[in-house]
């Protein structure tokens, strides 16, 4: 990279990286973001679902343009035999997003705050100095943040922890398509097609997104093969078998929780690089934005002499996902299509779904018993995958 002297270098224009950069720039610091892609919206690996909690808690999302999002107020959860329950929680919703445009919007906000984003620039090497890092070609930084995904080059260079447990996901995008019941996030349980996770169908912004994620195997192409069977299975509900997707997203999803160690002197990891992804839902946008922003402000305080190095204290605030790691273990080892077919619609299943999808809201909180009356269970005559 060309000679740059900055207070902080962030590797990766991800959700976490851009949030961190915005916070640092707003604090008046010189911040540089290195992004190997030429556009923050290209080659994305996320479905781009944002939960209501993120909208409520993260002011960085204030002003998110309406044309980039579509509200989805409920979940339709399908058992392997395609029976389903509809789940809602009072006032709760998800936002499907035009994710590439959202990433470009976040990058623009970071630059408006004063951050410099260098595109087409990969992280190559580092050497420690008394006051930070030398990053090649005379470039220096007082602090370094790795926001460069689950195979973080920053983590490798600093000998920090790296994720070892993954799901592998693939998603097809069908532009201009429509589906029945577009106000639902359609989630499918099937141990044969999606061991360890789910399949999904969602009416996004100007497109329908159909995806499948499963435990990582030695052959990621098995997920692509399973997609054909998934499209066949859901064809009585959503028939996309003869349509060609406009684009395909695929990639690794860390599901083992926060890596160890996650920080070193004057350096820390955020977002997927830190393993900051729910081991159950594989959702990471909310935590990436929340902790990316907080990391930026903590680093700013440190560089201003107001606090100790956040690599020592701030990372203690990272989510531990204890309960969700336990659920992940159970799902990995005891997932049963027979059990899901049998128990779908029962109160225990609704309790579990409420914890997973609505973050303990609605379906089982005291005073919300009326939600039970809104749950519908319907058997459809369908053909299933052989």
Provide a concise account of the structure shown.
This protein is α+β, with helices and mostly antiparallel strands and 386 residues long. It has helices at 15-26, 52-57, 99-113, 153-158, 221-233, 285-303, 310-313, 322-334, 337-343, 347-357, 370-374, and strands at 5-11, 31-35, 50-51, 69-72, 74-78, 84-87, 94-97, 116-119, 127-129, 132-134, 140-146, 166-175, 184-188, 199-203, 207-215, 247-254, 263-264, 267-269, 377-378. It has two domains: 5-43 and 98-162 and 256-322, FAD/NAD(P)-binding domain (3-Layer(bba) Sandwich); 67-96 and 165-254 and 331-378, D-Amino Acid Oxidase, Chain A, domain 2 (2-Layer Sandwich).
Can you characterise this structure?
The chain has 386 residues and is α+β, with helices and mostly antiparallel strands. The chain folds into two domains: 5-43 and 98-162 and 256-322, FAD/NAD(P)-binding domain, CATH 3.50.50; 67-96 and 165-254 and 331-378, 2-Layer Sandwich (D-Amino Acid Oxidase, Chain A, domain 2). The protein contains eleven helices and 19 strands. The strands form three sheets. Strands 1, 2, 8, 9, 10, 11, 17 and 18 form an eight-stranded mixed β-sheet that branches. The protein is globular and about 60 Å long. The relative contact order is 0.19.
The biggest beta sheet is recorded as:
8 strands, mixed
Q: What is the CATH level 1 assignment of the largest domain?
A: Alpha Beta
Overall number of domains: 2
Q: Whole-number average pLDDT?
A: 87
Helix content: 25-40%
**What's the total count of β strands?**
19
CATH architecture of the largest domain: 3-Layer(bba) Sandwich
So what's the overall shape?
globular
């Amino acid at each position: 990279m060309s000679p740059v002297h900055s207070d902080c270098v962030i590797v990766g224009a991800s959700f976490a990286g851009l949030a961190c950069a915005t916070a640092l720039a707003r604090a008046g610091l010189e911040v540089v973001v290195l992004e190997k892609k030429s556009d923050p919206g290209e080659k994305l690996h996320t479905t781009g679902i944002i939960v209501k909690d993120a909208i409520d808690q993260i002011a960085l999302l204030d002003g998110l343009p309406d044309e980039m999002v579509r509200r989805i107020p409920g979940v339709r959860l399908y058992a392997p035999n395609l029976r389903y329950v509809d789940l809602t929680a009072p006032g709760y919703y998800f936002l499907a997003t035009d994710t590439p445009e959202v990433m470009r919007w976040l990058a623009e906000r970071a630059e408006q705050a004063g951050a410099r984003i260098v595109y087409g620039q990969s992280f190559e090497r580092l050497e420690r100095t008394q006051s930070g890092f030398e990053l090649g070609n005379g470039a220096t930084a007082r602090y370094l943040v790795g926001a460069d995904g689950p195979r973080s080059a920053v983590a490798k260079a600093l000998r920090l922890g790296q994720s070892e447990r993954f799901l592998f996901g693939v998603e097809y995008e069908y532009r201009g398509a429509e589906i029945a019941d577009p106000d639902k996030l359609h989630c499918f349980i099937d141990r044969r097609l999606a061991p360890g996770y789910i399949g999904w169908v969602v009416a996004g912004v100007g497109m329908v997104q159909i995806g499948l994620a499963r435990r990582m195997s030695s052959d990621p192409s098995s997920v692509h093969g399973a997609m054909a069977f998934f499209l066949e299975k859901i064809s009585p509900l959503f028939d996309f078998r003869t349509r060609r997707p406009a684009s395909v997203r695929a990639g690794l999803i860390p599901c083992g929780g926060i890596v160890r160690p996650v920080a070193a002197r004057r350096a820390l990891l955020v977002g997927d690089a830190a393993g900051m992804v729910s081991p159950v839902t594989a959702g990471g946008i909310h935590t990436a934005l929340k902790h990316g922003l907080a990391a930026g402000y903590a680093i700013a305080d440190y560089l201003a002499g107001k606090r100790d190095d956040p690599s020592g204290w701030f990372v203690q605030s990272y989510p531990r996902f204890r309960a969700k790691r336990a659920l992940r273990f159970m799902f990995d080892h005891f997932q049963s299509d027979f059990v899901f077919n049998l128990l779908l619609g029962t109160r225990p299943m609704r309790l579990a779904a409420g914890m997973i999808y609505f973050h303990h809201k609605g379906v089982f909180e005291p005073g919300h018993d009326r939600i039970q009356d809104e749950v519908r269970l319907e058997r459809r005559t369908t053909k299933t995958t052989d």
